[in-house]
Amino acid sequence: MPSITQIRGNKQIQSTTITNSEVASNANISLSKIENGTILSGIDGRVSDLENNAFITREIPSGLVNGSNRVYTLANVVVAGSEQVYLNGLLQDPGASDSYIIAGTTITFNTAPLTGDEIHVSYATGNYLVAPGGSVGGAGGPSVSTFTKQVLTTDGSTTQFALQYSVTYASSLLVVSDGVIQEPGVSYSINESGNTIIFAYAPLTTERVYIVYLAN
After folding, report:
1. In what order do the strands lie in the sheet with 43-46?
2. Backbone angles phi, psi at 146, to 5 degrees
3. What sign does the dihedral 85-87-93-95 (CA atoms) show?
4. Between vectors from CA 192 to CA 190 and to CA 198, what angle results, nearest 5°?
5. How many Cβ atoms sit within 10 Å of the Cβ of residue 88?
6. pTM for the predicted model, two decimal places
7. Exposed / middle / buried, residue 2 (Cβ in 10 Å: 0-12, 13-18, 19+)
8. Cβ neighbourhood burial of 1 (10 Å; 0-12, 13-18, 19+)
9. Comparing 121-130, 152-161, 204-213, which segment has the lowest mean pLDDT?
């Protein structure tokens, strides 16, 4: 039977047993929340249907890729701002004046992909229910399910930028520069307070750099 355990320091402070139907069908998992420790959570056993369907990776949308069609359809409704749309491996910028717009299950490209182009989309569905506490989410903070986006103003010399919301880990951020995802811990890090991003290089004035907040 699945259970949820909360631990503070080395002391177990709460343990709750829940039925499979309360999690998802065919679930058999154990979740642990640890405070003041290095382990945030652990999952043992089979992953639930809910978890399987929470985030879709590299889906190929339906629609003709023929140089004239601009409209494509996904299998699930997309959580606004969570999508990553790739054209021939290059991450596209969202927006009516950029590469595409998305609404519900429909992606509309501003320019029709050419015959032979490859389209892949990763995105969160309505099952991606994250209500983080602390600086990102919880009381006084936005829900991560909104995938807040921050555009940076770069000048070719600045390597440190203030974050709109504090985060715990560099991997809590999706950082994109000119359509290329940056690797956390290599291309950038965050300071100890979690409120500043530090790049390994100074992004050029001509680079389009933005951050998407994925977690606290």
Report:
1. 11-17, 3-8, 28-35, 43-46
2. -85, -10
3. negative
4. 25
5. 12
6. 0.53
7. buried
8. exposed
9. 121-130
The pLDDT tens digits of the residues spanning 16-57 come to 444 444 444 444 444 444 444 444 444 444 444 444 557 788
Q: What does the alpha-carbon distance between residue 121 and residue 112 come to, in Å, rounded to a whole number? A: 16
- What single-letter amino acid sits at 141? G
Residue 75 to residue 199: CA distance in whole angstroms: 36
CB burial of residue 155 (10 Å; 0-12, 13-18, 19+): exposed
* Dist CA 130 CA 79 (whole Å): 12
User: Terminus-to-terminus CA distance in the chain, angstroms?
Assistant: 29
d(CA 111, CA 99): 7
* Surface-to-core class of residue 78, CB atoms within 10 Å of its CB (0-12 exposed, 13-18 middle, 19+ buried): buried
pLDDT at site 149:
83
| Domain locations in the chain as residue ranges | 3-48, 55-124, 144-213
What DSSP letter does each residue of 110-135 carry, written as one string?
A: SSPPPTT--EEEEEE-TT------TT
Q: How far apart are CA 120 and CA 114, in angstroms?
A: 14
The tokens for 97 are 């004046």
**pLDDT per residue as tens digits for the range 104-152:** 999 999 999 999 999 999 888 866 544 444 344 333 444 444 578 889 9
